[in-house]
Amino acid sequence: MIQSHLAGALPPSLAGSAARIVSAVRQGSAGQLLASVPAADRAAVGSALRSSFAAAMNDLLYVTAGVAVVGAVCAALLIRPRDFHQQEGSEPAAAGHEATEPVR
Question: Which of 3, 5, 52, 97 is most exposed by smallest CB count within 10 Å?
């Protein structure tokens, strides 16, 4: 994900080295990578890395939100009403009124 966005965000002089840049970031050597880039392209590479990370994080958040919504819908549809336990002879307390008997 990051590599495809990074290839488009890099300056034309470094567009072919997106795979090397992503590999260096994955290994945790982003500082060394920025130091090895020519000074004229350093700001552009830093900006491209930040925007690529943000774009990848945005995509991942959309995916996880979708999974959470699907899970919530499945939980709401698949839990049967008879699976909820109610004590015999007792009704739920009315809204705004507390039960007079303490919960044990």
Answer: 97
Q: Residue 55 sits in which domain range?
A: 2-79
Q: Is there a domain that residue 89 lies in?
A: no
From CA 47, how far away is CA 85, in angstroms rounded? 56
Give the predicted TM-score (pTM) of the model.
0.62
Tell me the C-alpha distance between 30 and 23, whole Å: 9
Instruction: For residue 69, give the 3-state DSSP assignment.
Output: helix
Of residues 50, 52, 58, 20, the one with CA closest to residue 36? 20
Q: List Cα–Cα distances, 94 to 91, 98, 99, in angstroms.
A: 9, 8, 9
Closest alpha carbon to 13 in 48, 55, 53: 48
Q: How many whole angstroms separate alpha carbon 11 and alpha carbon 16? A: 10
Q: What is the pLDDT of residues 39-95, one digit of tens each?
A: 888 888 888 888 888 998 999 999 999 999 999 999 989 988 777 777 776 665 555
